Amino acid sequence: MAIQKVTQINKGRGTAGVDGLTAITHEQKTNLINNWNWSKAKPTKRVYIPKRNGKKRPLGIPTINDRIGQAILKMAYEPVFEVSFEPGSYGFRPGRSCDDAIQDIFATLRKGSTHRWVFDADIKAAFDNISHDFLMRKLEGLPKMGVISQWLKAGFIDKKTFHRTESGTPQGGIISPLKREHSLRWNTRMDF
Asked: Which of 24, 38, 169, 177 is 20 to 30 A from 131, alpha carbon to alpha carbon?
């Protein structure tokens, strides 16, 4: 299922990581099914995509092998994390969208709530600034923590130059939004 997700479903399925590999053909997919393993994490390939404001957003493209591992762990961890997230949290969650958040706000206001404020925040470079130590403490006790640590510390290659990663999780990794959302999890419900 993870191989199918990475090679058929994901938008970036045709984008290679630093190893230059994609798995688009039936033969390549069969080879992955027969030979995939939890190998040492490789650096991500840094690419830049345009933002609406004219700036560029850095993405870290993992190798296909690392993407498969990330898809496996995302499928395993997501149900565990989902039960602990606040019902009013909408960012990077399966089956939730901005439209759902807006609908929830209007429903709350229609109920006649005396709370008439909304907390909206854009955390600058949120993916780039996650503390590895903090995140690993939040994930303590979960299987394959060593693999996650490898992904976090694998670094990235930008214009043929290797860069170490001391913090952050690559925006572009399959499991990165889940790691970011879990690292930001706190009790957002406040009583006034």
From this structure: 38
Instruction: Please report which helix (H) or strand (E) contains residue 46, including its range.
Output: strand 44-50
CA distances from 90 to 93, 97, 118, 153, 171 (A): 6, 6, 13, 28, 18
Burial track 50-78 (b if 16+ CB lie within 10 A, e otherwise): eeeeeeeebbbbbbbbbbbbbbbbbeebe
The encoded tokens of residue 9 equal 């479903």
Other C-beta atoms closer than 10 Å to the C-beta of 91 total 15
Calpha distance 121→104 (Å, rounded) = 17
Element (H, E) at 104: helix 98-110
What does the pLDDT look like over 48-95, one tens digit per residue?
Answer: 989 888 989 888 999 999 998 988 888 888 887 777 777 777 777 777
**What one-character-per-residue DSSP string does 117-141 give?**
-------TTTTTT-BHHHHHHHTTT
Q: What is the DSSP letter of 14?
A: T
N- to C-terminal Cα separation, the chain? 46
